[in-house]
Structures are given as C-alpha cells and as structure tokens.
Design a protein that fits this description.
It is elongated and about 80 Å long. 44% of the residues are buried. By secondary structure, it is α/β, with parallel strands linked by helices. The strands form 3 sheets. The chain has a 9-stranded mixed β-sheet. An 8-stranded mixed β-sheet has the order 14-13-12-15-16-17-18-19, with helices on both faces. Strands 4-5 form a two-stranded antiparallel ribbon. Strand 2 and strand 3 form a beta hairpin.
C-alpha cells in the first residue's frame, strides 16, 4: 500500500508562513483531511488548516515544542463518523530531515488518543516542513506507531510540486532523449505518475500517445464507446479491424505493444459511475478530452474533491453547411482545485449540464423537451479533423510539462486558459481568474456519501 498526501498551493503557503516566523523555533499546525482509501493507494487530501498560535504553546525551542491538544477537539468532532484524517505538521527550522525521538513520543501520545476517540481504525499522519517549504511525513496506526512513510506529497498550484520518498526510479532507454530536454528528475517523476485520460477519441488518443511515449508509468483510460468507422480518421492506433472494439482496449493494446513496460488500466465506462470516479480520484493527474459538458463538470468536481491537477482540451470546428468551414478553434484549460473552474470561466452553464445528464439517463424526456424548445444547442454534431485535434492535444501535454518542469519565460499564472483560433492564427493566453464559488467549499473533501455529493453516481 502506498500512502500519498495532496495539498493546495494556498494551504501550503499558509502553512509555511505560520511555521517559519523567523525566530528559529519549532511551530505546529493541524490539518483536517479527506481521504481516498483505495486498494493500492491511500490518499490524504487537505481540506482545512488549523494554525496553533505561538502564544498558546507552553514550550517553543529550536528542537522541541509542547502545545495544548484542545485544538484537536474541534477536528475530532469534524472527523468523527466521516472517515476524515487528522494530520500534524511541525517545523524543523534547522532543516533536520528526520523525525526525532521526541517527535516519536509526541506522535504516539497524540495519535493513539485521536484513534481512540474516532474508533474507525483508519490511519492518520504526521508531517515535517523544512525552511524551503519541502514536506516529508509518515503514516501512523491506531497506536500512534509508524505504519509507513508517505510515498509522496504533492502541492497542486500554479506549478505541480511533488516530494517523493527515497525509492529511486531509473531512466529507461527510450526516455533518455526526453531527459536531455527536461532533465532526469522530471523524467523520473513521469515514471512515478499515474494519469487518467477521460475520453479516448480525437484529442484523447493523441494525448494518450504523447503521455505513453513520454514515459508516464501508469495510464488509466476511460471511455464508454467502441470504435466506429467514422472514428478512423482521428483515433490513433486504430484500423478497420478494430471497429466494434472498445476504444480503451484498442489503445491499451497499442501501448503494451510499445514495449515500454507501463501499466495501463482500460475502463470502458461512462465517467458518471462510481468505478470511473474512483479510478480518476486515485490518479495523480487528470486529462479531460471529452465533448460532453456533463463530463467536464464531473471532472472539475473530482479534481476539487480529491485535489487533482486537471487539464482540459476542447476543439470546435463550425461547418457552414456548404462544404466549407466558418471557424476552427480550440482551448486548453489548466484547473487548480479551489481556484477558477470551467463553470466560473463560463465554458458551460448548469442548465446545459443538467440537459446532458437528462439525455443520458432519460433520453425520451430529453427528446420531448428538445422538440418543445426547452433545450437549445445541446445536440450539435460538428466535423472533426485530426490535424486540429493533434495541435490542441499537443498544447495540452506541453501545458502539463510546463507545470511539472516550468520552462516558460513568463509565470505559469498567466497561462490558466489558452484559447486558439486557427482562422486568425492566434493563441491568446489568459491568467487565472476569480475562485469558483460553486466548488470552493468542496476542496479536499475526498470520499463522501453520496460520491461527489451527487446521488446519480452509482
């Protein structure tokens, strides 16, 4: 079992500011975390930060701190019966990279008490922050003893920063040219990543091809459909012999045939089901390559609840009905949990999402309302051209690389949204906007009942 922790850039910055006031003495804080306890990965998602005031601490020295555990009480009340985790974070102002014997004693006392109060048998965690902002940590059992090291800790923000444990990852021979451009550290990080790609058609198959050849260690492919003859003009690695086969299976077979030793998990399912939602939640990164607005809204919710970086790509070709094209456009979005969303960026309205959900679960009612004029502009069938798909899919993957290995001359903050218009040959990046009020309260909640607070996900 691997244990991981994710935290937003905002929460990380708040922690660092509090834990290092400049006096060289230890400081402590507490985190309330959601979680996703999977079969192979147990993920902590930071939901709330509680800062222990300096003046409340009985002892604060460069190598030790004692503080009143009354601050734990409110978190225990919020965690009880909800499967939440409590995480302690304290500073090592001198950069000491290990838990001390005093830390061991403190953690055993604290977390044995927390576990007895919660009585759910679930693990909790303890972290240390160094002056650089780097975090490392361990997972504690019900007796407060170390169960395992945290496999990785990821800060999801303008950049995606991950600190891994000491296990090494070799650079494979096929990745060495990539390492010349992005460095061996970035290539090793790609090998450790688990990435979900939702939508395996025109843009999705191109994104998958790039991620596989970059050396991503694990790919989860999600799409409910089978290959049709009309798809052959744009889905990579498909031919007539694949018609009728599941798209995810065809692409998984192609990746295996590359011979790079990657793990591929094909899931032939609509995203609006429990298996698909949890499969995405247990990945490190999500790519959305879907046409449906309902799918994009669900991905934005998954990314928010489970603190996932989310890259979205969309392409639009408008035909004039006379054999010509009125416009060729596309867009790449990078979505950070807790910041702006596709909804707040006005990519869709809730009414459009509800209409698409109706079409999926009750097509007869959907068709009746469409004919009556209650639903407008939700069943358009636009042309698709592989050259356009490949361009915007490549922009999306390069946006991902820019977040794990910043290479631009400008701040990544200025590239939250990149719309492109090929009719006018323009790419006009836009900066991060206002936080999304619709999703803000769901940041880091992890597993809920019902999942994502949506009763329709079964």
């Amino acid at each position: 079992m691997d244990f991981l922790l994710r935290i937003t850039e905002g929460h990380h910055a708040r922690l660092k500011s509090h834990l290092f006031p400049g006096d060289g003495k230890e400081v402590v804080a507490l985190l309330l975390c959601g979680r996703r306890p999977g079969n192979e990965r147990h993920i902590f998602t930071v939901q709330e930060v509680v800062l222990i005031p300096y003046e409340e601490c009985r002892v604060r020295e460069p190598d030790r701190i004692t503080w009143p555990t009354t601050f734990v009480d409110s978190l225990v009340a919020k965690a009880h019966g909800r499967g939440k985790a409590i995480v302690k974070v304290h500073s090592h102002a001198e950069g000491y990279r290990f838990f001390s014997e005093m830390d061991d004693h403190s953690d055993r006392n604290l977390f044995s008490a927390v576990s007895s109060l919660l009585d759910d048998g679930l693990p909790h965690a303890s972290l240390i922050m160094l002056p650089s902002g780097e975090l490392f940590g361990r997972v504690l059992d019900e007796n407060g003893n170390q169960l395992a090291d945290l496999r990785s800790i990821t800060v999801v923000g303008t950049e995606i920063t991950t600190w891994n444990d000491s296990r090494s990852t070799e650079t494979a021979a096929f990745q060495r040219r990539h390492a010349q451009a992005f460095g061996s550290g970035t290539i090793a990080q790609l090998r450790r990543l688990s990435i979900a790609v939702v939508g395996c058609s025109g843009t999705g198959s191109v994104v998958i091809e790039q991620l596989a050849r970059l050396g991503v260690g694990r790919l989860v492919l999600i799409d409910p459909d089978t290959v049709e003859e009309k798809n052959l003009n744009r889905i990579l690695n498909t031919g007539k012999e694949d018609i009728g086969k599941a798209k995810v299976e065809v692409l998984a077979t192609a990746i295996h045939e590359f011979g790079f030793g990657q793990q591929v998990v094909p899931l032939q399912a609509n995203l609006a089901c429990q298996d698909a939602v949890l499969a995405v939640a247990e990945c490190d990164i999500a790519f959305g390559c879907v046409d449906s607005l309902e799918g994009r809204h669900l991905l934005n919710r998954i990314a928010t609840f489970y603190l996932l970086p989310y890259f979205d790509v969309g392409v639009r070709l408008d035909a004039d009905g006379k054999g010509g094209i009125e416009g060729i456009a596309g867009a790449v979005h990078y979505l950070q949990p807790g910041r702006s969303s596709l909804f707040s960026r006005e990519v869709y309205s809730i009414q459009q999402v509800e209409a698409e959900e109706m079409k999926r679960v009750n097509p007869a009612l959907y068709e009746a309302q469409r004919k009556e004029g209650y639903l407008r502009g939700v069943n358009e069938d636009r042309p698709a051209v592989i050259s356009v798909n490949m361009l915007f899919a490549a922009l999306t993957v390069n946006e991902f690389l820019a977040r794990i290995h910043p290479y631009r001359n400008e701040s990544n903050e200025n590239f939250a949204y990149i719309p492109g218009n090929l009719s006018e040959m323009t790419l006009l990046p836009e900066a991060e906007g206002e936080d999304c009020i619709l999703l803000k309260s769901h940041v880091g909640r992890g597993d809920t009942i019902p999942l994502l607070d949506r009763p329709g996900i079964l």
